[in-house]
Each structure stands twice: as C-alpha cells, then as structure tokens.
Design a protein that fits this description.
Strand order of the largest sheet: 3-4-6-5
Shape: globular
Distance between the termini: 30 Å
Mean pLDDT: 91
Radius of gyration: 21 Å
Number of strands: 6
Strand content: 5-15%
Helix content: 25-40%
C-alpha cells in the first residue's frame, strides 16, 4: 500500500500465509495486482519472472520482509532458528530477478547478538551479486506514524545505477495516540463490533487482568502494579527483564509502543487503552499502523492481529518508496 502511494505499479505479491493473500484480494479498492499464495522457494527458477512477464534485470524494485522472529529480542530459546536462513532465499531471488533496486525490512535483532553474523553474510552475498547495500535503523515515529517502531531498512541499488541512495529525512510530523484513535467511540461491552466499524471490539479480560488494568493510569506499566496483582514471573525487577513490559496502558499524548503480532492481548505488552478498561481493539491497532479506516483484514482475531503487527506501516513505506524514486531520478541525471 505504501509503495503504491509513492507511485509504484505493483505487479505481484506472494506470501506463504493464505490469510495475507486473502486480505489483498478482499481490498479491491486498494489493490488490483496479482497476489498468490506461495513459499519463496516455489517462486525461484523463473517463476516470478513468468508471473510478471519480465526478463532478468527489467524489474525496478523487489520489496520483501523475510520472517524476523528468529532475530527478535522478544523470542526466547536458542539463537539458531531455521527461519533465519530465509534471508538468503531472499538474496537468491534478488540474484535471479536482478532488479534495479531491492528493499528489505527487519527487526533490530538482525544487527544484534542473534543476527549480526547472518546480516554480515547477507550483505557480502548481495554485494557479490552486484549491489551497493545501505542499511539504516529507522524509527517510524519520525515519519508521522503514531508508534515507536524501530526497524532496519536495507536498500540495495544495482551497481550500474550508481551510488545515489539517501534514506528519507524525518518528516517532522509527530502523531500521538490521541490524534490517531482518540475520536473512536468506545466499543460495545458485549464484545461485538461497533456498528459500522468492523474489528472495533473489545477483548474479554479475565477478572485478574481487569483488576490490573483498573490499577493503572495512562502510560503506566507492570512496574506500577501492587505486588498482589503481579504474576510470580513478573516480580523480577523490570530493569532485568525490561522488554517484557506487560500489563500497561498507552498514554494519550505520546506515541504508542511497537504494535506487535500479539498487540490484541493486554498480557503481551503496553496495549491497554489509555482510559477504558480494555486492550486496544484490532481496528485501533490497524489505525496506529496507519492503515485506512476502511481497510479489511481476513481471518480470526489472532490472524488479523498478526497481519497488522507484522506489517510495515504504509506511511513509512511511502516515505521509503519516495526515497527510492528520488534515488532513481538522481541516477538518471548521470
């Protein structure tokens, strides 16, 4: 969506998750291009070129986001995760298509303890294919997204295009939670959608979680709860397990925390409404990710939250898309 808003003519989308493709098909107002369910391994050996009716080197931009869960600091367990190897499958697709530019987004963990070795190997592979590779950590809140969301944006420009790429400068626009969702009505108490606003409904909280959220003011988190409302696993000081900032409320006049794939759960982060005794709704999460109010999502609650949380905010994607177009214009002047 963001790339389209920047002026790109999208030719093909593919994803291994059928629900994602169903969502594209559902939003005919926004998408007209071909979208298919496929694993990246199934799209190699000329498949993408055939779908797009193109020859190697003709594609302007390949944009993709290999799964990031293996690099995420939120994940527990061993550092080795088979999903980490999918970034190299993406590199294979870059080599096969040989687009003028490629774009890849990933979590901060790809440059951290879990991912830095793989990141270094990936950059070497891409350089050997024939690309100048740029990598920068961007925070979505600097581009008008009402959310703290730091992600690495990797941009490659083919060597014959020259070295012209510059990351988009912060727009200077700052959007708060209040500005984004403050005008939305309170959803019904019975858990149904608010009339005329699909996915704007409240999640049922357990009795203990209802007590927890009622004990918090806006902007407060687990560290503000009395001991009797803390789970045993959360009685360790938050400075030790800091990123597990559960049981919190957003603050009206700040940006939201990062909207994750489980933002629909009060127990998974600072996802409580600033005033009302509930988690934010799926629709509110989508708005905080800068999706249009009438954008539809296919699937159950977990499916929809995953699609919203895993997305690149369209407003940020538009800024990145614009920066690639400007890069191309600079190269054309050479």
């Amino acid at each position: 969506m963001g790339l389209q808003q920047a002026g790109f003519d999208v030719k093909l989308s593919f994803d291994i998750d059928k629900k994602c493709i169903d969502t594209i098909h559902e939003n005919k107002k926004y998408f007209k291009h071909l979208a298919v369910v496929a694993d990246i391994s199934d799209m190699l050996n000329g498949k993408v070129l055939n779908f797009c009716n193109m020859k190697r080197g003709e594609l302007f931009l390949l944009a993709g986001g290999p799964p990031c869960q293996g690099f995420s600091i939120q994940r527990r367990g061993a550092d080795i995760d088979p999903r980490n190897q999918l970034v190299f499958m993406y590199a294979k697709l870059v080599e096969e298509l040989y687009p003028k530019y490629f774009l890849m987004e990933n979590v901060t963990g790809i440059a951290g303890k879990r991912g830095k070795t793989i990141l270094g190997q990936l950059i070497d592979v891409l350089k050997n294919i024939g690309y100048e590779v740029h990598i920068e950590l961007l925070d979505a809140q600097n581009y008008g997204v009402p959310q703290r969301r730091k992600r690495y944006i990797i941009v490659g420009e083919r060597n014959d295009m020259g070295i012209h790429y510059r990351y988009p400068a912060p727009t200077g626009e700052f959007c708060t939670v209040r500005e984004a969702i403050g005008n939305l009505p309170e959803p019904p108490l019975d858990g149904s959608d608010y009339f005329g606003l699909p996915l704007h409904r409240r999640d049922k909280l357990s009795d203990i979680n209802l007590k927890r959220i009622r004990a918090l003011k806006q902007g407060e988190g687990r560290e503000h709860l009395p001991d009797n409302l803390l789970a045993n696993c959360h009685k360790v000081d938050s400075s030790i397990i800091g990123y597990r900032n559960v049981y919190g409320r957003m603050a009206w006049d700040e940006v939201a925390p990062t909207i994750t794939a489980r933002f629909d759960s009060f127990t998974r982060g600072k996802f409580g409404h600033p005033e009302q005794d509930r988690s934010i709704s799926l629709r509110e999460g989508a708005v905080l990710q800068t999706f249009p109010m009438d954008f539809s999502f296919i699937g159950n609650k977990v499916d929809v939250a995953r699609q919203i949380g895993n997305a690149v905010p369209p407003i940020l994607a538009k800024e990145i898309g614009n920066s690639i177009i400007e890069c191309y214009k600079r190269s054309a002047k050479d």
